Amino acid sequence: MGKSEDNQSSRVRIPGHRSHKGFQDVEKPREGKKTFGRLFGYFGEEKWMVFGLLSAVVLTVVCSVYAPSLQSHAIDRIAEGSFGRVPPILAIMLGVYLILGICTLFQNLISNRLSQRIVRRIREELFDKIVNLPIRYLDTHSHGDIMSRMTNDVENISSTVSQSLTSFISGIFTVIGTVIMMVWFSWELALLSCTTVILTVLATKYLSKAMRKSYRKRQALLGQLNGSVEEMVIGFKTVTAYNRQRKAMEGFDATSDELTRVSILSDFLSGAMGPVINSINNIGFVIIAAFGGYFAINGYISIGVISAFIVYAKQFGRPVNEIAQVYGQVQTAIAGAERVFAILDEMEEDKGGEKNMDSSKGVITFKNVNFSYNPEKRVLHNFNLEIFAGHKVALVGATGSGKTTVVNLLMRFYDTDSGGILIDGVDIRDIDCNELRRNTAIVMQDTVLFSDTIRNNLKYARPDATDEQMEEAAKMSNCHNLIKRLPDGYNTLLTEAGDNLSQGQRQLLSIARAVLADPRILVLDEATSSVDTRTEKHIQDAMVNLMKDRTSLIIAHRLSTIRDADLIVVLDQGRIAETGNHMELLNKKGPYHDLYMTQFAGNQI
């Protein structure tokens, strides 16, 4: 995948273009049985709750299949004129129905609790996976689709476990129990009643196949729609500035219309399942009425048995109908689980390495580094550079020359295709990734602040820092007075990632956070690009103290900010064009001279 080297953190795809990037896994459906088996594995750690749920289900089924037989006996006693034997039967029926109601209540309570515990574990595993995914994955997949898997897909699993799955299990047990009782009373009438099962199975098979395909497509489109909305919100100013609102609406409407069409089809198929099964069940009632009456007239069965069979036929059809209806919901959950498991199966970022940086001096060496974001276009070509401890090295060059890629590789956001990066002679792949980043502070071109207090945002890089250390870092970054002027000072809550501050103020806070981290290696990715000249001067003064005795790597567009750099490296299409200090490069009259003159044409050098 191609990548803008100097602005990759702010990439925004303008809504209105029908991109299917990031949905490949969904378009290649997995084995439904395999996914269901994996999802069922989460029940293993909730054995006691599962046992309690199954016990409640079994008691519910036993009561529901036993009650019609009591009704049959009561009707037969009335037909015989034995009214004195009816009250005890009715008392038992009352007790059975009371137990049935209590078990149903416990069944609902346990299933809801079980679903929340399982879904909590899935959600935690998914979030843990997301925060440990490689940067490459997040750069090449729709953020909206990832969030859709965390919210919509997980919620589908939750509702299925709490509602549909219990109905599914209860329905199966009810069907089995009902068939046993029907055979017990009259195997001939039971056999005739079960002829409708074949029609039910065929209808369920063909409708569920269509539903499964439709639900997968709906989930994919829902993820795509969420991605479009997320990009629209992030890039709203860009969309508005270029008057692309109508184009954005057209793209959104196209996806929304397709989602609507697929959703209507999905709901139609799901809704059609019930009426189809009901029609088949009604055929079963006709069979019972006709043949049951014939058997009763000829003395094969009693009137009470006919009454029980009518109840059993309805009781047999109801769970079959429910199973057919919840099957669609189960398919939705399985489709969502496939998408969730697709992320859980992704390889996590390799943070391997057992060496630490306790005695690190900060000498950085790039040796024969080659790198590409996709095989078709190499970004760095045989890149060699040595940065001495405590030196300040600036990377300059045109957009796309590879400057930010150098930083990405140094931070191990990406790994090199070949060659290596060494710190004090140790390959960074042998250094624990957390240790590497703990000793390297980075100030990005696009500031990232969280919807939290200024205090917590500054301490994000160093949670154990004292308030005195935090305030000292703010003073070094010339933002202490700014913070004190805010209504709640350091306890001021930043809204929408700092939207209640100006871009320059957010940049100052980001720099203060890097100061508080007290790193051995400092990376400034055009850290002063969003501030005015006066603020830039304050920041540069603070940077002098910050960069003292630290290895510093600076990506710069404003060449005026790097005149005092120990070494300036000019990049051109992933290669080092020339190196030297400010005056040496000007005297060479090469690419740096041309860049400088472009920015300061007419000014005295």
From TrEMBL:
Its main location: membrane. The chain crosses the membrane at residues 48-69, 89-110, 165-184, 190-208, 283-312. It is found in: Cell membrane. The keyword Amino-acid biosynthesis does not apply. Keywords: ATP-binding, Cell membrane, Membrane, Nucleotide-binding, Transmembrane, Transmembrane helix, Transport. It holds the Pfam family ABC_membrane. One of its GO terms (cellular component) is plasma membrane. SUPFAM superfamilies: ABC transporter transmembrane region (SSF90123), P-loop containing nucleoside triphosphate hydrolases (SSF52540). It is a multi-pass membrane protein. GO terms for molecular function: ABC-type oligopeptide transporter activity; ATP binding; ATP hydrolysis activity. Gene3D superfamilies: ABC transporter type 1, transmembrane domain, P-loop containing nucleotide triphosphate hydrolases. It comes from the Bacteria. PROSITE patterns: ABC_TM1F, ABC_TRANSPORTER_1, ABC_TRANSPORTER_2. InterPro entries: AAA+_ATPase, ABC1_TM_dom, ABC1_TM_sf, ABC_transporter-like_ATP-bd, ABC_transporter-like_CS, P-loop_NTPase, Type_1_exporter. PANTHER family: ATP-BINDING CASSETTE SUB-FAMILY B MEMBER 10, MITOCHONDRIAL, ATP-DEPENDENT PERMEASE MDL1, MITOCHONDRIAL. This is ATP-binding cassette, subfamily B. It comes from Parasporobacterium paucivorans DSM 15970. The lineage of its organism: Bacteria, Bacillati, Bacillota, Clostridia, Lachnospirales.
